[in-house]
Design brief:
By secondary structure, the chain is of the alpha/beta class. The chain folds into 2 domains: about 60 residues; about 200 residues, NAD(P)-binding Rossmann-like Domain (Rossmann fold). An 8-stranded mixed sheet has the order 5-4-3-6-7-8-9-10, with helices on both faces. Strand 7 and strand 8 form a beta hairpin. The relative contact order is 0.11.
Length: about 280
C-alpha cells in the first residue's frame, strides 16, 4: 500500500470515528496501527480535512482548525531545557506545535528539583534534552522533538536554527543570550526572550533587525545573571515561560500585540507588572 492509499484509508476510518468534527485519541491510535502512519502524519491529515483531534477541543473557541494546522506544521527551537525551557516545551507540546528542537548540554542535578518540571529524583544524571524527548512522547506523541545535547553558541547556532520559525531563549547565561540574539537576527528568525531571578522575571520579543535584548543587557560585563544572587523558586519560571509561549503562539498565528521593542517586567512579590520601552537603536 502506497502512502496516498494509506492516507485515504486512514481518513475514511477517522471520519467514521469522529463526532461533531472531533477525532478521539483512541481512533487516532487505531488508524496509526491499521494504516501504518505516524501520529504526526495523522494529525496533519486530520487537520487538513477540517477535523480536529479531540485533545484540542478546548483550543477551538480561541483558534480555528486552520490555525491549529499552522501550529502542527510549525518548528520552534527551545534553547535551554531547564527552569524556563521545561515549561515552554510542556506547553508547546500540549498546544500542538508539531516540531520542537530542544537544545541543552546539561544533565539534571539535585538543585534542579525545586523548579524544573522535567526533573525528578529518578532523572538525576539524565540529559535534560532526553527527558524533554520522553516527556513529549508521553503527553503528545503527535509532536516531534529533536534533542540536541550541545551548548548553543555562535559555532553551531546557524546550523541549529536552520528551518526554525521561532527561537525561544530559555538560557541562564547572558553571554549566550546575546550570541543567540545576534544569530537570530542573522537567520531572520523572531526570538522570544525570558529571564527569571527570585520573585522577578521579564519577557520580550525581538524580530530581525531589532535590538531589544542587546539594550536590556547593555550594561552587562560578565557572569550568568541575577538569578545567581536571587535564586529561583518553583513558580517564577512557570509564569515567565507561559508568557513566552503566548508570544510564540501569536507569532506563529500572526495574531495579537507582541512584546516588540518593549520588555514586560514581572514582580511577583508586589504583584506588579511594568512595561518598559526599548526603542530600536536607543540606549536607555
Amino acid at each position: 500500500m502506497d502512502e496516498t492509499q494509506q492516507q485515504q484509508d486512514a481518513l475514511s476510518f477517522l471520519k467514521e470515528s469522529s463526532g461533531s468534527g472531533l477525532v478521539p485519541w483512541s481512533a487516532q491510535c487505531a488508524a496509526a496501527e491499521r494504516c501504518g502512519l505516524s501520529h504526526a502524519a495523522l494529525e496533519v491529515l486530520v487537520l487538513e480535512h477540517g477535523l480536529l483531534p479531540a485533545r484540542y477541543q478546548r483550543n477551538r473557541d480561541m483558534m480555528s482548525v486552520a490555525e491549529q494546522l499552522i501550529l502542527a506544521r510549525s518548528r520552534v527551537a527551545v534553547i535551554g531545557c531547564g527552569g524556563l525551557g521545561g515549561y515552554v516545551i510542556e506547553e508547546l507540546a500540549r498546544l500542538g506545535v508539531g516540531h520542537i528542537l530542544a537544545v541543552d548540554p546539561d544533565v539534571f542535578e539535585e538543585h534542579n528539583l525545586n523548579r524544573q518540571i522535567l526533573s525528578t529524583p529518578a532523572s538525576l544524571g539524565k540529559a535534560k534534552v532526553e527527558a524533554a524527548l520522553e516527556r513529549v512522547a508521553l503527553i503528545n506523541p503527535a509532536v516531534t522533538v529533536a534533542a540536541v545535547q550541545e551548548a548553543f553558541c555562535s559555532a553551531n547556532g546557524s546550523r541549529l536554527l536552520a528551518g526554525i520559525m521561532v527561537a525561544v531563549d530559555a538560557l541562564d547565561n547572558i553571554g549566550y543570550r546575546l550570541e543567540m540574539a545576534e544569530l537570530c537576527n542573522e537567520a531572520g528568525i523572531p526570538m522570544v526572550h525570558g529571564a527569571i531571578g527570585g520573585w522577578y522575571g521579564h519577557v520580550a520579543t525581538q524580530f530581525p533587525g531589532e535590538s531589544t535584548v542587546q539594550n536590556i543587557y547593555r550594561h552587562w560585563k560578565a557572569g550568568k545573571g541575577i538569578e545567581q544572587q536571587l535564586g529561583n523558586p518553583s513558580f517564577t519560571p512557570a509564569v515567565v515561560a507561559s508568557l513566552q509561549v503566548a508570544e510564540i503562539c501569536k507569532i506563529l498565528l500572526g495574531r495579537g500585540e507582541l512584546l516588540r521593542n518593549r520588555k514586560l517586567s514581572i514582580d511577583l512579590l508586589s504583584m506588579e507588572v511594568h512595561e518598559i520601552p526599548y526603542h530600536h537603536g536607543a540606549s536607555h
